Amino acid sequence: MLAGIGAFAAVGAYVLATSVDLGLWTSLGPGPGLFPFAMGAVLVAMAVVWLIQELRRPSQTAEGVDRGLVIAVVLSLVVLAVVLDLLGFQLGMFLFLMYHLKLRGRRGWPSSLITALAGSVGAFYAFNYGLNVSLPVSAFPLLNTIGL
């Protein structure tokens, strides 16, 4: 359990350190590193709270942890990171969500499609046009011309 807490804290510390290099504030307002810095701080704070809880009342060894699910999630995140620049955020995230909703979660087609579309296309437009944060688009000219 302590290894998990340490890993959680290490990821948070890494995000904190690298976000400072992006710049937390500009003359126009919040810089590109402010949001990642806040998320890194939240991760570190959550790791501290988790550690305190674990020291006060140690948790039992988790039974029934589906290691296959954990491996599937980690591997699919690695695949998503690898293909994101090639397929773009919308298509890559749509496929990622469909894999987890339909194949791994055995959800119905309508709810899987609606959730995957909202999570991929909706998030893309929310970030690109609502927050002015560019997410990757497809490297394939055909997909790029249709807005992916």
Provide tags for this entry.
148 residues; mainly alpha; 2 domains; 6 helices; 2 strands
Give a written overview of the molecule.
The protein has 148 residues and is mainly alpha-helical. It has 2 domains: 1-64; 65-147, no CATH class. Helix content is 73%, strand content 3%. It has helices at residues 2-22, 34-56, 67-87, 89-104, 109-130, 141-145; strands at 25-26, 29-30. The longest helix has 23 residues, at 34-56.
Number of strands: 2
How many domains?
2
Biggest sheet: strand arrangement? 1-2
Spatial gap, N to C terminus: 41 Å
From the spread of the alpha carbons, the general shape counts as flat
How would you classify the helix and strand content by structural class? Answer: mainly alpha
The whole-number mean of residue pLDDT values reads: 88
Radius of gyration: 19 Å
Specify the biggest β-sheet.
2 strands, antiparallel
